[in-house]
Amino acid sequence: MKPRHILLALLVAAIWGFNFVVIRIGLGSFPPLLLAALRFILAALPAVLLPRPQVPWPRMLAIGLTLFVGQFAFLFPAMQVGMPPGLASIVLQSQAFFTMLVAAMALRERPTGRQIGGAAVAFAGLAVIATTAGGGDVTALGLALSLAAALSWACGNVLLRGAGKVDMLPMIVWLSLIPPLPLLALSVAIEGPAAIGQALASVSWTGVGTVLYLAVPTTLLGFGLWGHLLKLYPAATVAPFSLLVPIFGAGSAALVLGEHFGPARLLGMVLILLGLATVALPVARLLRLRLAAGR
């Protein structure tokens, strides 16, 4: 990759990693489901300027309901009831392994031995983290909702693959038209009109800033740059940069919010990242290249 494209990939990873800190701050101003709805209302505005991707509406609806509605209807409440942002950024990456599982069931894709091994290591990390649930800042419900968010993301990934090659930015913008109504309906039913009205009536500049960050840098800029890089380079070259998202997420949570990770959580996080690296990085090919260079 050219240096400027490496910098773009690092920028996207940093934006997406810091996103978890912004969510935590935003939950101080808005109920979680309302915050998610506001994010997509704003992210959908460019649809008046961008052409709709040539993807059938039934598939668009299925992708939007899993990739966006399901994922964030679980993730935002998880971070409210007991999932710190740094840890959430790590646990959510289990979507990579759920994607393998869903693809195997729906598309009959057989995972390789390396993928199975990486998944086993990562799920061992999740098991270690699960032992810390109930310690105050992490609850069993928060962990369960985070895993449900990862599973929903995985289903959306598989559905998105079936959409064919599309321009990522218009796709994300048009998909953003789908979540607002379901999320608002869930917010009214679960959080209640009174909580919604109070949040909107007392909104601060901090709250406005969190919605803007979630909609513009995280959703529009992040996915736009990511799609641009995927057009220039093979997915195997670009995808490993996503491993940096939880690094930026955990690092920014520690610096900005003072989040602490005990020995068990650190071990679990390391195991998850090791499992992700085993799956995402072309270890065998890199070793062959290194051996060839040494001859």
What this model shows, in words?
With 295 residues, the chain is mainly alpha-helical. It has one domain. Helix content is 76%, strand content 0%. The protein contains 15 helices and no strands. Helix 2 packs antiparallel against helix 9. The longest helix has 28 residues. The protein is globular, with a radius of gyration of 19 Å. The two termini are 25 Å apart.
What is the gist of this entry?
The chain has helices at residues 3-26, 32-43, 57-81, 85-91, 95-106, 113-130, 140-161, 168-175, 180-191, 193-201, 205-232, 235-238, 244-257, 263-280, 283-294. By secondary structure, it is mainly α.
Number of strands: 0
From the N-terminal CA to the C-terminal CA, the straight-line distance is 25 Å
Give the low-pLDDT segments: none
Order of helices and strands: HHHHHHHHHHHHHHH
Fraction of residues in helix: over 70%
Give Rg in angstroms: 19 Å
Question: How many helical elements?
Answer: 15
Any descriptors?
transmembrane helix; membrane; 15 helices; transmembrane; mainly alpha; single chain; about 300 residues; EamA family transporter; EamA_dom
Question: Any chance you could write out the topology, listing elements then pairs?
Answer:
Blueprint: H1 3-26, H2 32-43, H3 57-81, H4 85-91, H5 95-106, H6 113-130, H7 140-161, H8 168-175, H9 180-191, H10 193-201, H11 205-232, H12 235-238, H13 244-257, H14 263-280, H15 283-294
Helix pairs in contact: 1-4, 1-11, 1-13, 2-3, 2-9, 2-11, 3-7, 4-13, 5-7, 6-14, 8-11, 9-10
